[in-house]
């Protein structure tokens, strides 16, 4: 637990975030990290602001007590709050003076509260937030939620509204007339420019001009911005801009464009020649142009990468090293199973098993150069039961079918009948013995798919009666009377959107619309903890592959990393510009990936809390993520029906799988990573040849450095099979340890 | 990504009227127009905002239908009290009311008597959620079980067979030999890439024991003697979704069956086999494209074979020809593409044998039946050329008829208007004929037009064809504005004679004018449409005498047949078919043309 910060600190930080989040709609908060040294003195760092406010209240109370000569209470309060006498004495006397108006105050211009705050934060060096660096890492582009008014004021400079269409048209004409190789790149400018010009018009109350402008040019925008344009078009008044999240995103984050130096020079020259300051200002203020040297990109290259809410990820955002390798497996003696051995002997291939085991053993001994250090983040120690499970896993793995284009997996489909459109989430345990379903009626149901029934542990009174020394104590603690094939877990007060089994099958996590994540025991079938932190619906939650940690993400755009024994999150990952729709742990547990409605995927480092990858290219909210078993690749599926493949190490898109016609809700790699299965709302399961997909990509140094990759158009060749279900959307997929594919969905007659 | 799907913009705003109505409903009386406008914009914006949020809940609920609870959750997200108790299972029945110049849509909230609710029996408890497992795929092949959708939906089969390169790889058929074509192309595609050809083994697809039993039962029932069983079997073929894998067997069965039975002149069996073809075609889950090479020859055989039964004079092999012709037309309609050119190939075959003088008359009949079923376009295209060369020499025959039918004067322009390009020629003939008839009166025409005096009623020019679906008026709605009833068409009845006069206004373009005349003995037949006549004539054995006609008359009959396709348009009373007078039901079929 060394690297995990203590709860106290995180509580502070979290509170801070929460206040910001709850306040961002009203636009009243003053903390603004993106404009350092601006209006408020609390804006220097966010963390002190939160604690400062507490202190401030405290001091105000003290001041009040002192004025009323309640010295005893003052002493008590001071003692309890742990404030040193001199820490508060001087400010109190100062402000008391200011309050009485007798003595001229040095900080009168800042106002009493502010001066108090600033002194407190300076005078209390032992305050935790000041000593420890804040754990919330505002990722690039995110910069959190600054004051709306500050943001909006960026639009106060305005030109003649009548000229806007002319400016835009002028630029359009210019871009249409440039050389082909530059045109595609420069065309990227259209969309952000359009948005900002429109918002500027709206902000300055030129409603009609704005509407006309929209009508005239919205048709020119790329079709994948359709959704945003729709939101934009509904916004026609200045009042609407307040509190509109989408709008805030456009503003707070600079739209990132990647343009080659030549193209950029061309644009710059044009704008300067024409004295087109309006457009130039917008480009300067609201756009981040990432200039690179080299060949301008082609239209298809640009299209592959664009589509997210805030443009592409900056190139340097993806430069950080990611240790994508797997952790070394603990060495466990695999006891030779006599029965198996005999069986094999009978079949006449007795020698086969041994070399296999050796190869596996040697594999796990080798340290992967790309792997993080074994102790990079503290992982829970293996229990005996975990070791047993590992042994089982290995045994099963020897019976694993090698999949490939000529050897497709069998698919077993679990249909939820009579779900009445209420099935919202499904998960399987790793050993495929249990299925859990989250439902819109707030229930979580667990089924056993093996003959072994689900049993509850006996009540405490009964447990005291059993013989604790007996060998079968684990059997005895179970209550036979409660044996059933399924159990229902009640506790949530809203639809359950995310569900995840712990790797040891003892716990189940569920996240819900009610803003909580709940941890359920699968021994007692009761709720153990309700993790509160998200104030808004929690769309997804996921256990770490090593257990103990889990991640959750939801409507509040912040992903939180929790440990099961902490009721406060350990890390908060802020940076997404819209809802976090899906979350996933990297197989080595050192990273988490989050997919969002802002159409980006971010990879976060669990240790530092930094965002280490921003992957753009999807044209719709991302609803599914999957890591390849070797941790090197990632697949993501979105509402646009496309699956994108990513190289995690390079932060590059390496493939695009087209074929689905609706949202992809489920993605899973086979146990060897040879096949990717995708399940979608269009009632199909599709299998893709991922080995070939990764082989087909030519990664030379240049493309790796620039990220400008030519995607081969080979979806048809990679598609190995399509399996229609009978009006059953596929919402979860799982490969068993023997590479049998399990799929689940609710039958919608 | 360049598809031009333009965003639907939400510039729609609620009408200010609604604002007023809402204000009144909560007791705010006089609302200013400006406030209304401002309010409505604000309200519209908020509604859209909420709808956008509600969509999120729908997506995360893994549904494609927005529900009221999604809206509730979206409201909750905005910190707005959700609408409690708003439950609507089906639709929200807005009522409409108007009065005092105002229109209002409102939601009817009935007063509910609690005791009623208490006393109504409780609804049945919905079934609890349960879990059921089945195999979606076994080693890459989708098993044909009820839990799975019917293997290979028709659209997919179609894209596979017509555009194999575009087709989505079906997965479940990859291993099966039935996918030879598709498998080969995908292998080709792979081969191109890899530089070596990877061919799938062409092993025949094994049928399961159940499928084999089914196949045996079905085929036996189809050609067996029990009609009830046959009906059941055909029903099964026409509806069962899982026949895909047995299709090659059925196809071979039919083609072989026709081959053998044509030689043996076994009409009954041929009919049964054709009914099987029909049933296969009717099956919505089957796409027969890949089996046409077997099926089409079989069907065409049944249309044009010289002899289909042992006693052609007695047996109704005409019906089989008609039926097969309709099947042919149907398959042309469904499967003809620019690549396989079925329709034009079939048309060419028919036309060629039709125009060949040596062709047997039965075959000719089949050719015409086949052609005419292909629809007006085909008929037009192929008849027009033949008509033109035949028209001119014979136009004088009908001139006399027109002379009687038409009132004076004979104006060339009028003729042109009525008869198209044949008008001027006709006109000159008629003028001649008028002079001529002065000498002959009605003696040359025993059942002369002059006797025509009682109008029965106008007949619909063409009605919907029963049975097999064929190109119908609605297929070319713009081309034939007069299809329902041509106002000038008349039916005259005189004793045993029935004369139908079609007005040229009903023709395709007014170019062809052909005279048809019937004399029918039976009294009971009610002629409702051309279709009826068509079927009476063709389905009765009375057509047989056509055999005795000379080429000239026979061709005349063709045109009668094309009347069905809207080409022939006028009746006359010229007799030319003495040989058929010995028949019972139809005394004479007099056909003439110009």
Automatic annotation (TrEMBL), chain A:
Indicate where this protein is primarily found.
nucleus
One GO cellular component this record assigns the protein to is: transcription factor TFIID complex
Compositional bias (Acidic residues) spans? 334-345
Q: Where in the cell is it found?
A: Nucleus
- One GO biological process from the UniProt record? transcription initiation at RNA polymerase II promoter
Which residue ranges does the record assign to the TFIID subunit TAF5 NTD2 domain? 160-287
Q: Which UniProt keywords apply?
A: Nucleus, Repeat, Transcription, Transcription regulation, WD repeat
Region of interest (Disordered), residue spans: 1-54, 85-110, 334-387
Q: Which portions of the chain have biased composition (kind: Basic and acidic residues)?
A: 12-21, 357-368
Query: What are this entry's molecular-function GO terms?
Result: RNA polymerase II general transcription initiation factor activity
* Segments of skewed composition (Low complexity): 30-52
Q: Where are the WD repeats?
A: 416-457, 489-524, 531-572, 573-614, 615-648, 657-689
Give the family per the record.
Answer: Belongs to the WD repeat TAF5 family.
Write the protein's name: Transcription initiation factor TFIID subunit 5
Organism of derivation: Oncorhynchus tshawytscha (Chinook salmon)
UniProt gene name = TAF5
From TrEMBL, chain B:
Q: Which GO terms describe its molecular function?
A: protein heterodimerization activity; RNA polymerase II general transcription initiation factor activity; transcription coactivator activity
Composition bias type Basic and acidic residues, residue spans: 189-203
Per the database record, which ranges form the TATA box binding protein associated factor (TAF) histone-like fold domain? 12-78
Query: Taxonomic lineage of this organism?
Result: Eukaryota, Metazoa, Chordata, Craniata, Vertebrata
- Indicate the principal place this protein occupies in or around the cell: nucleus
Where's it found, cell-wise? Nucleus
Q: Which GO terms describe its cellular component?
A: SAGA complex; SLIK (SAGA-like) complex; transcription factor TFIID complex
Coiled-coil annotation reads none
What is the similarity comment for this entry? Belongs to the TAF6 family.
Protein name per UniProt: Transcription initiation factor TFIID subunit 6
Q: Does the keyword Transcription apply?
A: yes
